[in-house]
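Bumping my old thread because nobody answered last time. Still need a sequence for this structure:
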């Protein structure tokens, strides 16, 4: 998916992988979802002073809205004065994400915003919406905002802080009574459903998990097949040069055994930092403040989180330096068994096969151009992922202007503008 701040992101409903007629246009009566007095009085029932003038909308669509509330006095004794509210018309998704965020908070109480409330309410125009309320991280900015302005040494320090957080998340025992209690409503993690999360679903084994990834990625006709063999399963691309990978029954058991709690979207836009005392040379310094956006979280083999990084480089992450440091500093967390490398290969096969057959997909073309201009290529060592081409220099910062220009270039090539 393109980076959420890009020009292309705004055109996603019409340009990304489908014609502009593939999505039903909203009726003229539909409006972007926004907070109203009825919503606020329901969420903060009995709390004085919570009005629309306290709300600051960050983003909204027909179906979602994220806004902050800043008050002089906390609305309830257990609440802070600064709050973040999310509204969705999706049903029960926010409750699922809140359960995962609460698991993260249990492991990282200093880094994961506390979820204070989840529920449903009705807008003034009669739409039923789900809401979540969490603590707002005051005095912070995204790591993305400052990443290219800090020294390589400071970059490494911040990456290591994130890596330490990942270590603590992986210590969570998915079979513990506490975890199962926290996950019991609304996304029950049954004894037989030990892999997955709300994004893809929950599965009893890696075979079904891979099948769901394939289903989510495959066009029609399919460009990959997953079949059972006497030894286990075999994933085969329709493009011979992309290849195949097989898993034995022992491989599948090993991957299932090594499922850990993963965030799955640890990119600079989802990491908040706070400025601290400057260095001796007066350059600013930052510390890790929060990890946000838990929509992709769940229990997976770490090879999945590690391998997904390869598929989103150049789309939802535009910083090669962040990518390479994260991969380098977390590589020791990957179990050494070959099956974990095979899972990374399977993700690559599915990703490359999908992109090969979508020749007019705007997002895929933008990603390919980004890869070319950043002078990176796939390493023959699967665990390394993307590496600099031999004899080339480390790419400089890829700015938002660079991103916008690249997207316009692709749109012109395809005749959209």
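Sorry it took so long. Here it is:
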């Amino acid at each position: 998916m393109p980076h959420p701040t890009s020009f292309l992101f705004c055109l996603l409903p019409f340009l990304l992988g489908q014609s502009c007629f593939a999505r039903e246009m909203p009726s003229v009566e539909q409006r972007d979802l926004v907070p109203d007095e009825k919503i606020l009085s329901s969420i903060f029932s009995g709390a004085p002073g919570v009005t629309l003038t306290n709300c600051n909308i960050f983003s909204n669509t027909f179906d979602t809205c994220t806004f902050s509330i800043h008050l002089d006095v906390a609305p309830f004794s257990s609440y802070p004065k600064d709050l973040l509210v999310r509204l969705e018309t999706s049903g029960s998704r926010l409750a699922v994400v809140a359960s995962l965020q609460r698991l993260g908070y249990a492991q990282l109480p200093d880094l994961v915003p506390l979820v204070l409330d989840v529920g449903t309410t009705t807008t003034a125009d009669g739409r039923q919406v789900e809401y979540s309320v969490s603590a707002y991280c005051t005095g912070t900015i995204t790591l993305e905002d400052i990443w290219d302005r800090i020294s390589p040494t400071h970059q490494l320090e911040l990456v290591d802080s994130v890596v330490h957080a990942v270590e603590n998340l992986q210590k969570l025992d998915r079979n513990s009574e506490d975890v199962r209690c926290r996950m019991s409503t609304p996304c029950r993690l049954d004894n037989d459903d030990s892999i997955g999360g709300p994004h893809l679903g929950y599965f009893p084994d890696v075979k079904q998990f891979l099948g769901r990834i394939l289903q989510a990625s495959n066009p029609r006709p399919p460009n990959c097949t997953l079949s059972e063999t006497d030894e286990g399963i075999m994933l085969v691309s329709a493009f011979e040069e992309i290849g195949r990978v097989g898993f034995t029954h022992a491989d599948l058991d090993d991957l299932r055994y090594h499922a850990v709690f993963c965030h799955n979207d640890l990119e600079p836009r989802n990491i908040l930092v706070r400025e601290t005392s400057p260095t001796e040379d007066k350059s600013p310094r930052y510390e890790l403040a929060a990890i946000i956006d838990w929509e992709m979280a769940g229990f997976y083999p770490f090879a999945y989180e590690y391998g997904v990084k390869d598929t989103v480089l150049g789309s939802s992450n535009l910083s090669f330096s962040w990518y390479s440091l994260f991969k380098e500093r977390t590589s020791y967390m990957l179990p050494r068994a070959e099956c974990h490398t095979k899972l990374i290969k399977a993700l690559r096969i599915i990703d490359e096969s999908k992109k090969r057959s979508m020749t007019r997909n705007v997002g895929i073309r933008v990603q390919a151009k980004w890869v070319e201009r950043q002078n990176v290529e796939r390493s023959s060592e699967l665990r390394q992922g993307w590496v600099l081409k031999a004899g080339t220099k480390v790419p400089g910062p890829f700015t938002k202007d660079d991103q916008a220009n690249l997207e316009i270039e692709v749109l012109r090539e395809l005749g959209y503008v």
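The two ends are 20 Å apart (CA to CA). Let me know if any region looks off to you.
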